[in-house]
Amino acid sequence: MKSFASTSALCAALFVWLNGGLWAGTTIETSVPVYLPRVTCGAPDLAFRIGSALSLPVGVEVARPDDCNRRTGEKTQVAYDLIGMSKEDALRTLSEYDGRYRWTEDAGVLVGRPINSVSDPHDFLNWPRGHAFSVHEVRLQAALFELGTMLGPWRFVADGSSSRRGTTPLLETRISLEIADGTVLEAFNAIVASHGAAGWSISYCSDVGTIDTATFSIATFDGSGVGLRIIAPEADQRPGCN
Predict the structure, then answer these.
(1) pTM of the model
(2) Does the pLDDT at position 61 exceed 70?
(3) Per the structure, how many domains does the chain have?
(4) Concatenated DSSP letters for 30-90?
(5) 222 occurs within a structural domain
(6) Contacts of 94 (CB under 8 A, 6+ apart)
(7) Is 236 a member of any domain?
(8) Is 49 or 75 the better-scoring residue by pLDDT?
(9) Any domain includes 239
(10) Which residue range forms the structural domain that includes residue 33?
(11) How far apart are CA 26 and CA 43, in angstroms?
């Protein structure tokens, strides 16, 4: 069952309401510029900006490094703006912007994943968790850590590159949730859906895309965020990572 801590929940609910209502309205009412030419992994950034404008939680599995365009130093410029666009048209725009991703709305979360990962049994987001996942009155970082500990005998290091702006009201929001056994993806979605104004992302430090090369991040719509990266047991460095 989902619930919010009283004070923190009011902050999150107020933020969502000010951005157009729970799960947002059906139309983008703030400026969301689209920059071209497409930069390295620009689709995840665009998805988070769309999610924030619509107050729609987001989740993105970033394409492997070998799938991302390398930065060429070419300057970008605003090609068009999504203001006034419907949620459905925004999803269509995301698909057209970067065809490597499949975008869906899953249980109230805008989810983007590389097309070749969606049905890949080796992708850990598709793994069955085997048992229920629950947290009670915890902040996002604690929920992220709790989910990570379910995935195997891993130890964690805070990922500084994922930290943004320090503490903000939405980062302090506490969540409670309980979901039955299912996939790892469903658990990530449940965390940001319970929060209501955040998005998860998973990136990889190598072309392999395995759990031990992954960094888990959650960013809030008021500009803060937390991240964890996994280190394999009895290893000082993650395999395949520089």
Answers:
(1) 0.82
(2) yes
(3) 1
(4) S--EEEES--TTHHHHHHHHHHHHHT--EEEEPPPGGGSPPP-----EEEEE-TT-BHHHH
(5) yes
(6) 43, 46, 47, 50, 101, 103, 112
(7) no
(8) 49
(9) no
(10) 3-231
(11) 20
